[in-house]
Design brief:
Beta Polymerase, domain 2, NT_sf, four-stranded mixed beta sheet, Arc Repressor Mutant, subunit A, Polymerase_NTP_transf_dom, 10 helices, 209 residues, three-stranded antiparallel beta sheet, nucleotidyltransferase activity, Putative transcriptional regulator
């Protein structure tokens, strides 16, 4: 799946893209506003989708002067599933946080990085995970956790999980050497365990030493 295009999991058509826009905020949209957000869709295509969704009752249509405005019908039976689909990215991150919370203090930090964090996923993209763990972790137990984490990511999304892991010592050595990957995690990573403050403090400390 593409976390940045959650409706593509159920429909590859323009309908999903339009619903994603309408579900993004509890406001009205004009056809031109939807088109500016989607960029590649034609105004006529968007109009046809909105008319079809209005006929289904999923979208509410009104006119203000000569302007046609549309909004998601929050009371429609399908509104709940539509909103749930629109939140797939945040749902994925929440599941990760909840799962990693059970790993205890041996996990110092974790973040999603790469295309899953920047909103540029392709259908075949891996989901990149960055982890730092303490040297006191049991090797066998740690490997089992990594295997289970990769399995869960694939089960939840259909995408392979690519896990990059460091011990604290390896992390500090990489930071001191100016490892570019750490810049990517710092600038674009989405923290799912530990704190960004800890990550940045460790990097600064390693660079000074």
């Amino acid at each position: 799946m593409q976390l940045n295009k959650p409706f593509a999991t159920v429909t590859p058509t323009l309908d999903g893209d339009v619903l994603a826009v309408l579900a993004s905020a509890d406001v009205t949209f004009t056809i031109s506003q939807v088109q500016r957000i989607l960029t590649t869709a034609s105004g006529e295509g968007i109009r046809k989708v909105l008319n079809r969704l209005t006929a289904q009752g999923v979208v509410l249509h009104d006119e203000v002067g000569r302007t046609h405005i549309y909004r998601l019908n929050a009371e429609h039976l399908a509104a709940g599933p539509i909103m749930a689909l629109s939140r797939l990215n945040s749902t994925f991150l929440s599941r990760l946080e909840q799962h990693l919370d059970g790993w205890g203090p041996t996990l110092r930090y974790a973040a999603v990085f790469g295309s899953a964090a920047t909103g540029k996923m392709r259908l075949d993209s891996d989901i990149d995970l960055f982890l730092v763990h303490g040297a006191d972790s049991d090797d066998d137990a740690w490997e089992q956790r990594l295997t289970e984490l990769a399995r869960l990511v694939a089960a939840w999304t259909g995408n392979d999980g690519r896990i990059v892991e460091y011990t604290e010592g390896q992390f500090r050595a990489a930071a001191a050497a100016g490892e570019p990957l750490l810049d990517d995690v710092s600038k674009q990573g989405l923290t799912v365990a530990g704190t960004r403050a800890w990550f940045n403090a460790q990097r600064r400390s390693a660079r000074r030493s």
